[in-house]
Structures are given as C-alpha cells and as structure tokens.
Specification:
heterodimer; A: 497 residues; alpha/beta; Rossmann fold; six-stranded mixed β-sheet; 22 strands; 26% strand; globular; B: 306 residues; mainly alpha; ABC transporter involved in vitamin B12 uptake, BtuC
Chain lengths: 497, 306
Amino acid sequence: MPALLAVHGYTCRFGEVLANDAVDFAVRAGEVHALVGENGAGKSTLLKLIYGVNRPDDGTMELDGRPAVIASPAQARAAGIGMVFQDLRLVSALTVAENIALALPVRPDRLHKRIVEASERYGLAVDPAARVGHLSIGERQRAEILKVLMTGARIVILDEPTSVLAPQEAAALLEAMRGLRAQGLGVVIVTHKLREVREVADRVTVLRGGKVVLAGVDPAGYDDPELVRAMVGRTVPPLPAERPAVPENTSPVLRVTGVTAHGDDGRVALKDVALTVLPGEIVGVAGVAGSGQRELCEVALGVRPTTAGQIELGGRPLTGGARGALAAGAAAVTEDPLTDAVVPGMSVFQHMALGLPRMPRRGLDVDWRKVSEATENLDKAVGLGMVGGHRILASLSGGNIQRVLLTRALGRADVRLLVAAYPSRGLDVATTRRTQELLLARRAAGAGVLLVSEDLDELMALSDRIAVMYDGRLAGIVPAAEADRQELGRLMLGSAA
Amino acid sequence: MSDLLTDVLSGGVRGGTAIMLAALGETLAERAGVVNLGTEGCLLVGALTGYAVAAETGSPWAGLVAGALAGAALALVHAGLVIWRRADQFATGLTLMFFGLGITSLFGVAYVGKAAPGFAPVEIPLLSDVPVLGPVLFAHDPVTYLSYLVAPLMWWWLRRSRSGLLVRTAGERADVLHLHGYRAGLIRGGAVVAGGALAGLGGAQLSTAYAHAWFEGMTAGRGFIAVALVIFAAWRPLRVVAGAYLFGALLAVAPVLQARGHAVNQFAMDALPFVITLLILAVIGRRTLRAAPQELRRVFESSSSN
C-alpha cells in the first residue's frame, strides 16, 4: 500500500541557509511517525512545505502514490492534511462548536451532535458548548485536533503538542494519538522528547542541519544516547550529579510572603503566594502555562505591582521597582524576551548598559568604554559566544538574542537572585547544556535561583526544590530529590493529594 | 410626580432611539474589530439627508432610507481608509465626525426652519392604555417601534448565524479567519458600513420623528455618547438598549421640566449626559474591558505604543 503522503528530495533555501536539504519523509496509514531534531534542524521548515505555507525549491510530493503539488494551506486541507499548530488557532471568546464551525460550512448550533459523535469516536473528550477561553490547554488541544479531524484530515500533524501540557494531559494526548492510529489515520508528532518517541512512535525520522540523519526507522532499534547523537551530532555528557549542599540557616535572598497580584488582563494572577529562595539554592517553578509563573517572576523583579503581601530581596523589603531589584542584586532572563527584555532598535552594548546595576557615567553621558569592557568580561565569563556589541538586536536571530540576555544575566558575579524563565527556550542542545551549567555555577557561587520551566526533566535535574503553581496559587513545594512526575502532574492540574 | 416620571421615561425612549441605533451600529463595527469615532458624523448626515429627502419627496419613509444610505456612505469612507489604507482608526474617525458636521452645515442651510413631512406618534390601541408602560413604550412614532426590533435581531444574529460568527471572529482573531480562507477586511468593512447605516437611520429618526426639524449640529454629541455606551454595555446589544434609554431620559429631563414652567439651566442640563458618560467610563472596571473584542485591544495597544 502506498504511503498516504511522501516527499522526496525536498529542498528549501532561506538566503544562504539550506533549511531542508534533499529531505525524504513519508507517512503511512495507521502509523505514528515521530519527527525529531533540535531547534533549527529543519522540522518547522519541512512542516511548512508539507502544509503549503512555503514552496520547496526542489523535490516532489506524492499523495496515495500519485504525484501532487500543494501550494497553499487550503490545498493541503483539501488533500486531507491537517495541522495542529503549537500556538493553537482557536478563538478564545468563541465556543468549541463555533470554532469548529469556522472550518466547516455549517451553523454552529447544528454541530453539537456531530462534535459529540466525533469526540467519542476518536476518544477526544470536549464539551462543544464550552467557551475555549475557559478550557485548559489540554482541552483546547483536543478541540483543535477534533476540528482538524472533522474537516476530513487523513494525516494529522502535531507540532510539539506536549510541550505545554502537564504529564497526565500529555499521556492522555499520546493515548488519543494511538486511537487515531487505530482508525487508520497517519499521525506525525514533532517532538524533541525521546520518552514520547518511545511511547508512541512506530517510526522516527531525525533531522539535523536540514538533512535526514535517520530516515523512518523503528526507534526500538536505537538506544537513547544513539538517538541523541543523531540529533546533536555528538554525545552530550550528563550534568554533574555532585553539587554542594544548600547552606542551612542562611537568610533567604528572596522571600515572598502572602503576595497577591493582577495579571495583564486584570484577573487575579497570583493568590496569596509564599515562597523563599535561599542563597545557593535553585527553586524550580512548574505549572501548566499561565498558572502565574510569569507574574511570580515579575513581582520578584519589581516589575509588577502587588495588591497584598511583602517581597524581600536580600533581607530588605523591595522598593524602587525594577531598578530597586537590580540594585539589590537581581538579574533576569524573562519569559518572552522579545517583548519583555528587548528594545529591537538598540545595540547589544545599550542592552548591557541598561542591565547593569549602576550605569557607568562619564559626565552626563554613559561611559561606553566601561560598558564595552563590562560586556567583554561578561561574555568571557559566560562563554556562550555572544555576537558583537554594536549590532542592534532586531538584526539578531532568536537564539542570538537569547544568548545576549543569558550573558547579561548569568555573567555578573554580584548577582544574588537570578530569575530565569524558560532559559533554554529556542536554544540548541549544546547551548542549553552550557546554560544549565551556568545556572549551577551561579548556585555554587551562592546565588539563589528561581527557575521557571515547562520541561519537568530540566526542573528535576537542576532544582533543589520544585514549587508547583496552579491557578495563581502555590499548589505545593517538593524537594526535587523526592519529586515524582505523577505527583508533580497532579499538583499542576490542581487535583490536590 | 408619576406624570413627570412618565414624561421623562417616554421622552427617554423617543429621544434615546437615535442613541440606541447609533450605539448598535457601533457595537456591530466594534464586534468586527473596528472603532468608528465618526458615529456622530454618521448621525448628522443621516439626520440632514433624512430630513431633506423627506422634504423634497414628501415621504418620510424615503427620508428614512436615504438617511441610512448616507450614514452607510460615510462609514464606507471610514472602512476604506482604516481597513484598506491602514489609516489610524481614531484620527480617521474624528476627522469624519468633523467632516460630517461641516458638510451638513454647508448643505443644511436651506433646510433650517423649513417644514418637512415627518412621523407622527401612533398610539397602539390597548397597549398604550396600560399605566406608565403604555405612554412610555407604546405612544411613539413608527420608527421608534421599528427600532425595538433591532437589538433583539442583532443579538440573535451575532449569536446564532454563521455570518454573525464570522463578524465576531473578525473582532477576535482575524488571523484565524484568514486561516480558514475568509477575508477579514471584507467582513469588517461590511460590519462598519452596516453600522453606519444604523447610525444614519438613528439620525433620520432624530430629525423626522423626534425634533421635526433640521438645525446645525442637532445631534449634540449623541454619537459620542453612543461610542461610550458600547463600552458601558460590554459590546452586548441588549445592554445597549437599556443604556440608550437611560441617556435619552437624561436628555429629556430639561425639556420636560421647562414645559412645566420650571426654570432650568439649559447649559447644565446639556452637560449632564456627558458628565454621566465620564463617570461611567471612570468606574467601568477591568471586568467590563475584558469583554472587549481581542482585535480592538490590539488596536488600542498598538496605538498607545507607537
């Protein structure tokens, strides 16, 4: 039987970059095919080519064994290719039925029955009358998958679907994928988690640097280090397991007591949160996206006003907003660097000057020579290979922007509190590892670290304690050594004990 | 005393009709993701065109249709500039408001003090005899009766129909519309123009059924009250009705008192609706603003950061 979809020799250039280099990829009916690779390996490019967002410079496509050309997402959908994007394309203010009605030419109120039938058939439980904005991320994802299925998709492509889910939700999603496979659909899951590949994939294709390294092989024939080597191109040593103990009887660098704060949309985003971070300690923060992690970081950095409670940095009440926090020894890698921490039109030097606790001055001007010296020292201390000082940030790639912000936050020896939100987002494996080593180095130097991540493995590997947030509250704090994925997952979903 | 209340409420319904129609038109535009501050202008061109056409043809119904078309035409300019030329919504809307004021002053001179056939109150048998409610709701001109239907229809249409769904999606996430192969610009344009037609209809009601006259600037800021009302009503058609009648009643207080020989400071009474509007805007909580269509929020954010 021919593959549902097969591409041969797909090649795509963006300027100098060869994003896809003669890629072969096929999806059969009744299989789950995992597409894995690092950021920048060419996974997104391949998806965009298959879905008709971009056109390949070279290569051919076959659908059911017959040559086909797909020039737009609409053509892709008509051909039975369904895409579940990472940032779901659902309208929060509308109900599930209304969202699905947008994709089908029917009145929303006539869809309820069909949605219920489809959700039973595919094992994707979701209430058609519920407003999407009130659903959990996992439920939204199920709604999106149903939408794709109800428009007649035979091939379902999921782009990193589990990255924002709690472990239980992720497990349910993988179960649903097995259900789709049983219905004879072709399922593609893009992921970088080997655990998921093992759990659900019949075949795996590994991309590296735009080329296929492993082409549709059975993952059972490879062990984890082999798959990692295929992804990264070399072996990655494990993080050092031996670490200095957290010093006892010290006063915390960060003490948050009974803090309540509003989110950007005016809802109460932090409710009566109490948390301490000791010097030489990494406190991980876990939670489903939007549970208050962002607001917690922001109140600790003096960026977001609180409506109740106290925040102490280094034993003193935090005053003077963000500058006050900076002066008290705080440094940050923020959640969404492009909007929170970057002025696109300003240079690397200017960003460094803004991030220094005291801006070096010469007369009325900033002493740019000192800034440049400080920048050089930071770069040397951190060793992430930051690009040159006069380049404006708008001209840098996401990964390079992240390197600038990491260098600024991780290089300073005088940092007492480091707030790191998703520090490895968008970085390749080697840079991620270097970043993690730097966090441990800061910890060893006596700084307290508040580490927010959606990757439970990263949190469990780096943290001393893991605080779990749910709906703006602290659902629990667990010593990392005793943490268990299931237990953390339960806390993340708000189902206590 | 109850007579006074009945008069004020009755005046509120008749005088609030123009505000209600304009606010419903603005609701439609904003649900599709466009703010039209030119609503006052649409009211004005609707008022003059309606009155002029009624005077020239002898038919107030023709005037009504013409008023709606005039409002739609002005809104079409707004839609064209904002959606296809990507002009700033606030600058464009304000400019159109002044354009409406200017052009109606220019062409309206001939109709100041001129008589035209208008709509007379028609008391609905039986219903108009009900104490208080009868005179308040069922002793009005035909246009006011017609206007009773607009809000429920709009409510049903936005909520249940497929085209209503597309309008709401245009106001929430235009990119999703695009993803499904719809043209958000076209949908928004349609909503803005239909909203302008409603405002034009309101203007025509004002001149041919309420004031029975045309004079320069006769809408007296009703269009701006309507824009504020949309926020106050959290973008919901049925709430707009209540707010419009409330403001209509405020506007009716002065004439009712004067008719009874009370000395009233006309300027203070004219200012009252706007003072109330400001107070409402000041106390509207974040809760209400959360109901705002997401694309509107984008409009506000991009204009405040640029």
